[in-house]
Each structure stands twice: as structure tokens, then as C-alpha cells.
Specification:
The protein is an alpha+beta fold and 271 residues long. It has eight helices and 15 strands. The relative contact order is 0.14. The structure holds D-MYO-inositol-1-phosphate.
Amino acid sequence: MPLEQDLQDVAIQIAREAGELARRRRSEGVMIAATKSALADIVTEADREVEALIRTRLTEQRPGDGFLGEESGADRKLAEGPATGITWVVDPIDGTVNYAYGIPSYAVSIAAVTGSPEPESWQALAAVVFNPASGELFHAARGHGAWLDGERLAVNAEPSAAGALLATGFGYDPATHAGDLARVARVMPLARDLRRIGAASLDLAFVAAGRLDGYFERGLQPWDHAAGVLLVTEAGGLVGGGGPGRTAGTPMTVATGPALFETLLRAALGE
Ligand code: IPD
């Protein structure tokens, strides 16, 4: 089996186990463990427990790989350069605020990337975004398409005459809100409507599935977009942003079908 599909299978199996743990902990009641970059940026006990489970399973199954996770950061192998050249980029519960409030839009996001573990230069090989509340599991292997539970995904080639159904997100730091709202004002003329789903990995999975025409957000971290970006590109979409070489990343992430890409990117960047 090609490496990409092998990695995808590992990610699917671990995401299902991790998602089941997240769902169970949610049903038992969620404990906020700490706040992080801002008061609104929370981490729950479940985020930490789920990430620890994913990390343990990856170490068991892929001992030579590196690890970069939202809650526990990078491991020593990553700094040294993992023996296999592969790094796992993990958000144990993307959409933590939804999770804490009981909104069923959160996901386990797992990607295997190769090359330097920087989003500007890495190449994603395999990706899984699993929403345990809905049971939907989106997955992709580089060169082998993006899938939702056995159904091959394709982005919307172009938005309808009514305009594009778009999604975005807002950073936790209140100092970023005015800029984010100004961006929304610039983008709205392209939109038939705008969603704020609350989990970047699901926003990207929904672009891949044609449930959204496009998505844009400033401020994403590598674990927020590592898996979702591969879903979009394997579904025939385009992803870019405001970083070096216009790659997706913290300065900006834009994902759409081919027809809308340049227009939405320019509006999002204010060009
Ligand atoms: C957040 C979600 C949210 C996005 C934020 C992310 P987290 O991830 O993806 O939709 O707007 O930028 O930080 O904190 O829930 O893992």
C-alpha cells in the first residue's frame, strides 16, 4: 500500500478512538482546565486527555515520526528532525468553545506531513477530520482524493448566481476583532451568506465537500488547518493565504473552488 494511504489508515483508526473519548467526556460534563492566549481561548481537560491518547497511539504505531500538537507542542524528535521525515500535526479537539458549550461542531484533526514542519514548506501526505458528534469522518491521502465515509468529495466549481456561501472565524484576541470585521465587510459583496461554524477543520472539510463555496480566516495555527487544507486540495480546490509565497497560514487562509479563489483571496487581503 502507498505510504500516503498507510498513514491515512493510521490516522483514521486513531481519530475514531480519540473522537469516541472526546464524545464520552463531553457527555460526562466538560471541565475548563485553563485559558491560553486570551480569556476566550480555553483548553478543557478533554483536550489534554485526547491529545495524550493520540500521541501515545502514534508513538506505538509510528515510533520514528515527529509530533506537533496544539496542547503539548512539539516533541524532541521534531527539533532533531524525525528519523522518518514525517511529522503528525494534531488538534485533539478543534472547536473547543463549541465543545465546552455543547454545540455539536467540533472535530479531531490529524495530519501527517513531510519536510520541514512549517506550514509554508511542508507537504501534507494524509489527513483526517472526524466530528464524533455527527459521526462524519473526512479523510484524504495525497494523490488519492478526499472522502467522506466512502463518498468521494469535490469542491463547488463556482458559486451560484446568488453569490458564494462563505465561512470565516475570529481570533480570540479582542485586539484582532476590528480587523476581522473590516475583512468581513470587504468580503460580503461576494457572499450570499456567511457562516461562523467555530471549527476551522470543519470549515475546510465543508469546502472540500461542497457544503461551502469558500472559507477565509486570519490567525490560524498549523494544527487548525494542516488536515483541512489537504482535504480541500484533494477535492479539487485551491488554498492560499498571506504568508511567504502566498501559502495558507497564520497571516491568512483562504480555501475555495477554482473560480472564486483569486477574488476571495484579494478581498480577504484587502488588495
Ligand atoms: C479554533 C477554531 C475556530 C477558529 C480559531 C481556532 P480551537 O481552534 O478552529 O473556529 O476560529 O481560530 O483557534 O482553539 O477550538 O482548537
